[in-house]
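Hi V.,

Quick status before I head out on leave. The structure for the redesign project is tokenized and pasted below; the design run finished overnight.
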């Protein structure tokens, strides 16, 4: 699958975002080794700490469907630069060893990085 296809899926899911407080829509799409794509959007809550990011929504959907091997994730938002995942999302990506992270914005800018580049000192099972 091409990066553009994964970004397009993330962009579609961005439209489902529930963002009555920030009005900041984010979409994500994760590609599983099986070839299936799982999309997600950010879902806000009046109690801000229980808000869920698009990236974690997509990853959790994939995992809840039995996927454990994830190959890539794309994230998109209306940002000046390609949208970078938050720290919590980076850690979840590290947990599932997603090797390729594709960041994008609505202007068409993209940047793809490895997990090691995104979170070089990730906490892992080796730290337990």
């Amino acid at each position: 699958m091409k990066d553009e296809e994964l970004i397009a899926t993330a962009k579609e899911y961005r439209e489902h975002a529930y963002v009555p407080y920030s009005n900041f829509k984010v979409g994500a799409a994760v590609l599983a080794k099986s070839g299936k794509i799982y999309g997600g959007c950010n879902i806000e809550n009046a109690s801000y700490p229980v808000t869920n990011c698009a990236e974690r929504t997509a990853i959790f959907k994939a995992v809840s469907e039995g996927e454990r091997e994830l190959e890539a994730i794309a994230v998109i938002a209306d940002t000046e630069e390609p949208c970078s995942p938050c720290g919590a999302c980076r850690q979840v990506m590290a947990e599932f060893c997603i090797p390729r992270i594709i960041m994008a914005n609505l202007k068409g800018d993209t940047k793809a990085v490895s997990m090691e580049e995104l979170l070089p000192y990730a906490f892992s099972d080796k730290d337990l």
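Above is the designed sequence. The beta strands are 26-32, 37-41, 70-77, 100-105, 110-114.

G. will cover questions while I'm gone.

Best,
W.
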